Every structure is written in structure tokens, then in C-alpha cells.
């Protein structure tokens, strides 16, 4: 069975780059670009891994992740957060609300691929505070 990734991102260039690299690796990649309806998209798709941008139209990735972690069915969903802001307080907030991994933009395609693979293979509790990278 093919692994499913949901990419919630609003920058077309990043969407295409991430979709391309993950699809070549055998992933089925679904995309969504609106923060206001992102939780509904996760509920509908039930991905194996979520790649979530911090700065989205209408709602932040932090708010979306907070809502998802409050839902029992998504409490353990592996989440890679992406952001153009990589300051210490951003990383700490991401870890505190349950991001599995944190990556700053710009990033290489190989970094994203490696992170998604690791998240899919690992069974790490989301609240463990693993905010790598």
C-alpha cells in the first residue's frame, strides 16, 4: 500500500518541489493551501505523514497543529513543520504543541525526503518535543 502525505502549503514552487520529490519516492501526495480548512483536509485524507507550513492564509500552522493534537485520531500523526522563520522561539513553540520535526526554508529536496521517510518509519510520540533541524 502506498504511503500518503498531505502537504499543507500555499507557495506553488514549494508545493511542486515537495510533490515531485515525494512522488518519485513512491508517496501519494495530496495538497491543500488554505489554513481555515486545513483540519478538515487532514480529517478527510487521514495521511500517514503531514507536512505543514507555519504561515498559511487564514490560519497558522501552529493553530492547525494544536487542533489536530487535541483530536485522539491525530494525536500521534507525524508532522513535519516548515517555516521561513527558524528562530529559537519558533522551534520551541513547534515542539511544545507537538511537531514531530521542524525544518526551515529554504531546504533541499533531499532533506524533506529524508525527514518524511524518518517520520513514516518512526513511532515517536508527538509530545516528545523532537524539533530537529
SSE layout and pairings?
Elements: E1 4-8, H1 12-24, E2 28-32, H2 38-45, E3 49-53, H3 61-69, E4 79-83, H4 88-97, E5 101-104, H5 109-121
Please provide a written account of the structure:
By secondary structure, this protein is of the alpha/beta class. The chain has a single domain, classed as Response regulator (Rossmann fold, 3-Layer(aba) Sandwich), CATH 3.40.50.2300. The chain has five helices and five strands, in the order E-H-E-H-E-H-E-H-E-H. A five-stranded parallel beta sheet has the order 2-1-3-4-5, sandwiched between helices. Strand 1 (4-8), helix 1 (12-24) and strand 2 form a beta-alpha-beta unit. The protein is globular, with a radius of gyration of 13 Å.
CATH topology: Rossmann fold
**CATH H-level homologous superfamily name:** Response regulator
Oligomer: single chain
CATH architecture field: 3-Layer(aba) Sandwich
Query: What is the percentage of strand-forming residues?
Result: 15-25%
Query: In total, how many beta strands?
Result: 5
Instruction: Supply the CATH class.
Output: Alpha Beta
- Largest β sheet strand count, sense and barrel closure: 5 strands, parallel
> How many helices?
5
The neighbouring-strand order within the major sheet is 2-1-3-4-5
DSSP helix fraction? 25-40%
Structural class: alpha/beta
The count of domains is 1
Radius of gyration: 13 Å
Shape: globular
- Average pLDDT works out at 90
Amino acid at each position: 500500500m502506498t504511503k500518503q502525505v498531505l502537504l499543507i502549503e500555499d507557495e506553488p514552487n514549494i508545493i511542486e518541489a515537495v510533490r515531485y520529490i515525494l512522488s518519485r519516492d513512491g508517496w501519494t501526495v495530496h495538497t491543500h493551501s488554505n489554513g481555515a480548512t486545513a483540519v478538515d483536509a487532514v480529517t478527510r485524507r487521514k495521511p500517514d505523514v503531514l507536512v505543514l507550513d507555519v504561515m498559511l492564509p487564514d490560519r497558522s500552522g501552529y493553530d492547525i497543529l494544536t487542533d489536530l493534537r487535541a483530536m485522539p485520531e491525530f494525536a500521534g500523526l507525524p508532522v513535519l513543520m516548515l517555516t521561513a522563520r527558524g528562530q529559537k522561539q519558533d522551534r520551541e513553540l513547534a515542539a511544545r504543541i507537538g511537531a514531530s520535526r521542524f525544518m526551515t526554508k529554504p531546504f533541499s529536496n533531499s532533506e524533506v525526503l529524508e525527514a518524511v521517510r524518518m517520520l513514516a518509519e518512526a513511532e515517536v510520540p508527538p509530545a516528545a518535543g523532537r524539533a530537529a533541524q
